[in-house]
Amino acid sequence: MKVLVTGGAGYLGSITAKALEQAGHTPVILDSLLVGPRQFIGDRIFYEGDIADRALVRRVVEEHPDLDATIHMAARIVVPESVELPYEYYRDNVAKSLELFDELAALGKNRLVFSSTASLYALQPEFEVREGDAVEPTSPYARTKLMMEQALTDIAAATDLRAIILRYFNPIGSDPDLETGYHLKDATHIVPIMAQVALGARDTFTITGTDLPTRDGTGLRDYLHVWDLAQAHVRAIEKFDDVLASTGETSTLINIGRGDGVTVREMLASFERVFGKPVPTSEAPPRPGDAVGAFANADRAHELLGWKTELSMDEAIESSLAWAAKRKDVLGYE
């Protein structure tokens, strides 16, 4: 199959493109390079440009009429930044995505896998969340993802466009060959920050939020290896028609997570065990927009996609450390 991957030069997009290749598929990358580094494209088919550029999207389809599906991963994703720059987040994540969705539908490219987020779930007493649970996004970033879900659901009901919406939990690690990984110079996610501290690129790891309603007062997340997340996209592409036929829906939601919750302090302890040394830490209040946390009930992913996580947390941490040690050679910065 040939698959258009928007945001395919980014962390998740580049690793998903590799997973598609290893499964025998051909990714076609569309990326503005606003965030994703050019180095992550490799020798893949690549179009540099904006997802809202309808003429460019038409050219991609004209030059690749055999495109079978689109994986839409292009987005701004930094929660605190979304609080500071809400206009940019709504413009790039919502308004531009609507142009892409409408153009794909007009071109008859009707299979779409959409990258959403678990950060839009409302807080649950036991922290486990299912696809039908209430949503209560706490940041502009999460609200943009919810808006896109709602728009996709409505568009799929009114047109021939069909959508599988994957609600990601928290991917960590790198691709198996350490060719791509987390690339933001100023990391905002906890495991890349821990790796930078461990390797001397930062002085301390700051625990943001220590009196939250969790078992140790720190935020709780569901962490999975990014390679497992990439495999979920391969399954979603390969099983796309069967999934929607089995649900009887024009669009459907699927959680993609490990299925257990880990607090920040617990992740820090695991990281230090794998690294073999303590990591200097400090404490601070929660960042603007941060959610308390949740972990996935991933039964639906297993039932519909035949997918579950296969790699351990230790493997994900080891992968993160190995990539952090190598990424200066790839990207030119630690």
Overall description:
The protein is an alpha/beta fold and 334 residues long. The chain folds into two domains: 2-172 and 223-256, Rossmann fold; 190-221 and 260-296 and 310-331, UDP-galactose 4-epimerase, domain 1 (Alpha-Beta Complex). The chain contains eleven helices and 15 strands. Strand 1 (2-6), helix 1 (11-22) and strand 2 (26-31) form a beta-alpha-beta unit. It is globular, with a radius of gyration of 19 Å.
Keywords:
single chain, 334 residues, alpha/beta, Rossmann fold, UDP-galactose 4-epimerase, domain 1, 2 domains, seven-stranded parallel beta sheet, two-stranded parallel sheet, 11 helices, 19% strand, globular
User: Which parts are unreliable, with pLDDT below 50 for 5 consecutive residues or more?
Assistant: none
CATH C-level class of the largest domain is: Alpha Beta
Task: Using the 3D structure, state the CATH architecture of the largest domain.
Answer: 3-Layer(aba) Sandwich
Shape: globular
- End-to-end C-alpha gap: 36 Å
What structural class should be given to the helix and strand makeup? Answer: alpha/beta
Query: What is the helix fraction of residues, given as a range?
Result: 40-55%
Largest sheet: 7 strands, parallel
Helix-strand pattern, N to C? EHEEHEHHEEHEEHEEEHHEEHEEHH
Spatial order of strands in the largest sheet: 3-2-1-4-5-7-12
Provide the β-strand percentage band. Answer: 15-25%
**What is the number of E strands?**
15
Helix count, per DSSP? Answer: 11
